[in-house]
Every structure is written in C-alpha cells, then in structure tokens.
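Researcher: Following up on the earlier apo prediction. This time include the ligand. It's zinc ion, with the SMILES given after the sequence.
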Amino acid sequence: MSIPTPPPPEHNVTGIDLADRSHLRYTGPLIDIHAHVMVTRPGDPKTGPPAGKGPGASSEQAETMLTVAEEFHIARTYSMCLPDDIPVLRQRFGDRLGFNGSIAKKKANDPDDEAYRLLERFLELGIEIVKLWSAPRGRERGLTVDAPWRKEAVRRARAAGVRIVMVHVADPDVWFRTVYADTAKYGTKPQQYEPLEQMLQEFPDLRWIGAHMGGDIEHPDHLEELLQRYPHLYLDTSATKWIVRETSPRAAAVRSLICRYPGRFLFGSDLVTRHGLPRDHYVSRYWCQRTLWESAWEGRSPIADPDYTPGENEATTPILRGLHLPDEVLRQVYYENARRLLETSLAGVKTPPPNPLP
Ligand SMILES: [Zn+2]
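Model: Understood. Below is the ligand-bound prediction.
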C-alpha cells in the first residue's frame, strides 16, 4: 500500500535548502521594524488578531521566531501585539523586542474613549511607535487613517513623546481586482492615499512609516512621488510574499528607487507568531527578504503565494529576483535608518527605553 506523500509545506513548496545562506553577504546587524511577536494560544484564529484569552498561552513561538531572527543577525524586532502580551514578552526577551501599539476600535460605533484607553495602556507599557491599520477591508469598522479619533490618538501619542506612526494603507493591486472589486464600498487604490496624504500634511513633525512598501510596490513611480513630497515619510519592506512577487518583475526600478532614497527604507518582515508553526516558517520569510535585497539570487520563491497566477506550465510560485543592493545602502535599510528614527522617538516615553542598539 502506498502512503500518499504529504503536500509540501507553504514555507517551502520548491523544496530548496533554507539552511544554505551562502549567498547572503551582509554581516552587520538588522532591525526588524515590522513584526507581530505575540503570546500564542491553541485556539487563535489562523488570520487576524489573536483572541487574547484562553488556556495554553505560550511564548514558545516567540522564542522560536527570535532565535531564528538572531541567526539572520536581527538585533531588535519591533512587535505589534496585545497590551497584555508586552510585560510577558519583555520579561522573557528584554531588549530583543521593542513595541508598536496598534490603535483601533473593535466596532465602528464603539466610543472613541475605547481607542484612547488602549493608547493610554500602550503608552504606560512604553511603546515607541503607534500603528494605524487602515486597509480597505477595515473601512466597515471605521478604521480610516484620518478618522477624527485617530487624529486625536496621534496628537495624544505625540504629546506623550511618541514620534513615529506606522500606517497600513491600500493592499496589493491584485486585491483591487478581486476582494476590493466593489469600489463603491472600498474605494479605488489611488483613493486610499488621499487620507494618508492628509495626515502627512497635518503631522509634518512626526515620522511616518508606510508599511509594506507604502502599499504600492507595484508603482515605484508613485512611491517616489510620495517620498519627494513628504520628507518625513519612510517605507518598510515587510509583507514577504507581496513584496517578493511584485518587486521581482520590476527589480531594476525598485533598486534604482532605493538607491536614490537610501535613507527612507526600513527592513521589516511582517512575521506573525502563531501557535504550532514550524521553525522553517520563520526562516523562509527572513531568507526571502534578505535574499531579495542583498543577493543576486534568482529563482522561484520557496513560499506558496495564493495571489500569484502562474502562466501555463509555469511553476506555482513567483520569481524572486535579488536586487543586490550596494553595501552602504543595505547598511542603511537594514539598520541605520531605523536606529536613527528610533533614537529621536525615545524622549518622553514613560517606561525606560531599551538599551542602546549595537
Ligand atoms: Zn503587519
């Protein structure tokens, strides 16, 4: 009787040797500015935020992820997690983590005070960044980036000493043809940037990080326009599948953009700890991110990507085409830019700041 072979794991469908990192040439430290290191629980949903309660809570996945991070020379990881997770994680991992507080309301008609109380808790716990998650699918819950309660939260965070705001606007172009095809409900992709620009103009004294390459890696010319117009805007490289899929076909344009604005990009993984994930899940994201930016490696991405439509007789995952960024650019993107930004953010934070980075 033949035993059916199990399907390949999502983190390595091409079966490459993720332990082979001989093509990675950068030897300095990195800061991961965008990750979700959380306490995990057996009943957590597969996507979306964790339930936050329940038996079996564990920081083992966080331990696994941060051990892998260390292998990839990540000196500090900035995590978005529930406020309750922060003391637990800080106790166990100390300076290896910094925190970013995501300011949201559960339902559109929840009172604004709920968001302010959440911010207050985060501030007491010593966050250094606030996050405004404003993907089109959050519109129904009132999570627009320029909602009055969010403006007020940003003002209060600023008054408490926070200097960095991370925003998630838009989503991949392909989603605007599928999940967001109803533009009356979600708006067009260009329309997602109107409230962001409004906020950039209203808060020029803060540093803004556009998560996932500003949400528009498909249009490097648009990103350039934003970087030009808003000198306080930065872009993080997080969301591995999306960024690999859409950077590779326009590798030359993206490389040229980063090289012309080397001070404006920040390394991020968007890794999320989830109960029961294998170690190689974490490896795959760091491996692809670093391969993309620092090497000339070219081949099929090892990670399964449901947003990629292969051509006939084509492999199921998109091409990953390494940009081989110059050493000096890498050093800035991987480390210096984040270090500089974070340094300016620490004044006024109530909890003692983490020890200086290497
Ligand atoms: Zn994220």
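Model: The radius of gyration is 20 Å.
Researcher: Noted. I'll compare it with the apo version next.
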